[in-house]
Amino acid sequence: MNEEQHQYDIKTRFYAIPVTGSTELKVAMVFAERTQVMGLDVRSIVVPAGMKGYVIVELGNPGDLYDLIRGVRNVKRRRPLLMKPEEVVKLARPVVEIPELKRDQIVEIIGGPFKGMRGRVVEVYESRGEVDLVLLESEFHMVITVPIEQVKLAESE
Q1: Do domains 3-92 and 106-155 have the same CATH topology?
Q2: Confidence (pTM)
Q3: What's the Rg (C-alpha) of the chain?
């Protein structure tokens, strides 16, 4: 077995490192710089939107964890949490339920600048993940294009 194959056979581990709130991105940048300078076996650094106060790192060598976090400002002194790969995948790719839409259905917009407004479906572009709507609450005929995940079915006619 050559060295390149052996590198991928090592089981990687994911750690959630507690940091001071709203400094996650800054700490992740420090980790990235430290990884390059010190030559640590850090494979990825994730700042998840759903976990405020944590930075997730993927390490090939768990021994590099101490060198990564030692002396970094805004890293809390609590012990890093070992995470399962499935948990990290859920955070990295949140499950979005995409509604089955057809022409002339009434939908409510749940995201973006038109949030809270209602519209009638004009056209569905599944390949692009978008839908054209006519706003019902507009004083004039206005067609807008919205990502499918930003609408939910209100009622059907």
Answers
A1: no
A2: 0.58
A3: 23
